[in-house]
Amino acid sequence: MQFNQPEVLYALFLLIIPVIIHLFQLRKFQTENFTNVKFLKKLSQQTRKSSRLKKWLVLATRLLILTSIIFAFAQPYFPSETPAAENIETVIYLDNSYSMQATGQRGRLLERSIQELLENLPDDRDFTLFTNTDEFKSAGKSDLQKIGYSVSQLDFETVLLKAKNIFSNDPTTHKKLLLISDFQEKFKFPKIFNSEDITLYPLARRPERLENIQLDSAFITGKSIDTRILNVQLSYSGNQPENTPVSLYSGDNLIGKTSIDFSEKKLQQLEFPLENKPILNGLIKIEDNGLQFDNNLFFTINEANPILISSINNAEDGFLNRIFTSPEFEYRAMPVNAIDYNKLAASQVVVLNEVAELSGSLLSSLQKKYEENVVFIVIPSAEDTDQNYRLFMRRLGVSGFENKQEQEKLVTGISFKHPLFTGVFEEQIRNFEYPKVQVTFLLKSGNIPILSFQDEKAFLFDLDGNYFFTAPLNQKNTNFTQSPLVVPTFYNIGASAIRPVQLYYYPGKINKIEVPVEIQGDQILQISSETSNFIPQQKRFSNKVEIIIDELPNEPGNFSINNKEQLVSGISFNVDRDESKLVYKEIKNAENIEIIKELPEFFNSAGFKKEVGTFWKWFVTFALLFLIIETLLLKYFK
Fold this sequence. Notes:
Elements: E1 2-3, H1 16-25, H2 38-74, E2 76-77, E3 88-94, E4 103-104, E5 107-108, H3 109-120, E6 128-130, E7 135-136, H4 141-144, H5 156-166, E8 174-181, E9 198-204, E10 212-221, E11 228-237, E12 244-250, E13 253-260, E14 268-274, E15 279-285, E16 296-301, E17 307-313, H6 318-323, E18 329-335, H7 341-345, E19 349-353, H8 360-371, E20 375-379, H9 387-396, E21 404-414, E22 436-441, E23 451-453, E24 458-463, E25 466-469, H10 486-495, E26 511-515, E27 525-528, E28 533-534, E29 537-540, E30 545-549, E31 557-563, E32 566-573, H11 599-603, H12 615-636
Parallel strand pairs: 3-6, 3-8, 8-9, 17-18, 17-19, 19-20, 20-25
Antiparallel strand pairs: 1-2, 4-5, 6-7, 10-11, 11-14, 12-13, 12-15, 15-16, 21-22, 21-23, 23-24, 24-25, 26-30, 27-28, 27-31, 29-30, 31-32
Helix pairs in contact: 2-12, 8-9
C-alpha cells in the first residue's frame, strides 16, 4: 500500500497523547476498612478487573478512530499492476477548428471539451497539449483558458507527425495520444493504426443536431467591364429549412436583401447586381440555428485599375489608340526601336503590331511576360521575320509565317458563339460590307477561327488566351481598321485580360496576392483590422508587391492593406467551408486504438490511475464504526 499524501502519516505520533492520558487515569483504588469484607473483597476485585478492561477497550477504539482518520487523509492506494504505468508519456490534441462550434448536449463542443479538461486534468502530471495552431508544453489550466477557434484544421497525418515530434525517443516508454475532435471525414482518421509504442485514444465530440445552412461561396460575373453581378451560392445539410433571408452589406449599409428557397434543390444560387464601384467591407449574412461561422461571408471588391496595354509598333497604331481609351484601358505605344521595359513589365496586354525583328533583350522580356500569362495580340508584318521572332511565335504555339499569300480575300465569317462576340450582335448578320485583305499568311495552329475568309481560312484565331491575326492591318493591306468589327474585336480582346476578381482568401493556405503599388526605401505593407495587425511575407517589384499569406490571420473578417498610414487596398478572409460539412467518420476499436466516451475514462487508465478502489472511504467507514463501538462500550459495558 502507498499513499498520495504520505506526510499526513506524521500525525500518527499524536496517538501517544490518548495513551498518556489513559495511563494517568489508571491510578490505584483507595483501601477502606470494613467489618465483614469476605463478600466485599470478591466484589471489589470483579469491579476493578472490569473497569480496567473497559478502559483498555475504549483506548483501543479511540486509537483506531484516530488512526483511521489519519489514514483517510493520507489517501492510501495500491499501485497499478500495469507494468508500464510508471513509464507512460501523454500528449493531447484538441481540435479547435470552427466545426467544433457545433452544439452538443452540454453546449458547444470546444467549450465543453475545455471545461472537462479543466475538471479532470491531474495536478501531479506534466503533459503537452496542442491544437491546430498552438502548442503548450507542461500545459496548465491557464493555457486551456486561452484556446480559441482556429481558421485551419490539421488532418490525422499532420497531428500524428506533430505528436511524434513531442514524444521522446525512449523506446521503453509507451506513448498515449488523446485525440479530442468531432472527426470530420476530411480529418481522415485511420481504420487501422500500426504502431509499436503509440496508442490512440479518440474522444469523439458530435453535435446534437445536423441541421445547418451555409454560405458556400461568392464570385463576380459580368458580360462587360461595366456590368458586375455578385453570385452567392448557399446549401444546407439535415432537414430542409424554410425560406432564409440573405442580406448584403457594404460596411454598415444594407445594399441588397432577398430570400432563398431550398424546396427544389440543396444547392441554390442568388444574384445581386452591383454598381461599378469598390466595396471594401462587404458582408453576406444569413441567420440559422446551426453553425455560426458560416452564416457570414466577408468579401472585398477593390477599385478597378485600368488594363495596361503596351503596343510595340512597327506600323501605324491610330486605331488602337482610339479603341483602348480610359478609364477602362491605359494604352502605351512604343516604337520597336525605343522600348520602355519598365512599362512593358507592368503590362497586362502586349500588342506586337507588325513587328518583324526582336532584339535579344526584347525577346527575353516577352518570354517573361508569357510566363506571367499576359494576353498577346499578334499582328504579323509583311516583311520577312527574323529567327528570334519565329522562336517566340513557336513558344506561343504558332508557325507558318513563311507561307505568305498575295491574293485578295474577304473576311466573311464570324464565330458568333465565341466568347469574344457574346452579346455583341443581336442577331447573326450575313450581309455586311466585308473587309478586304491583300496579303495573308497560312498560320498553323489547329484552332477554330474567330474571323475567317471566304475559303474558311482563319483571319483571327485564339490559342491559349492569345490572339493572332493572319494579315497585316495597315491601311495598304486591309480596310479592316475602318470596319465596324474592329472596335468590338479589339475592345473585347483587351477586356479578356481582366482576371476573375478574388473576393476573399482562406487563411491556413498559401495565398500569393499581387498588390499594384510602388513602395520606396524600407517601406513595407501591413495588413490590419480593428482587432489585429500583422506584416505578411512580401516581394517587391518595380510596379507591384507580391504578398504571401498562409497562417495568419487567426480569424475571418475584412482587413486593409496599408503602406504606413495610407490605405492601398482591402482584403477579406473566410473560414474554409469544408468545416461546414457535418459528415463524420465512424471510429471503431482496433489494435492501438481505444475509444473513450468520456474524458474521465482516459484519466483513470494506466499512467494516470494510481489506486485500485477508493480506500480512503473505507477508512472513514472504519472511523465511524469504531466511534459507534466506543459509544456502546461507554454506555452498556459496566
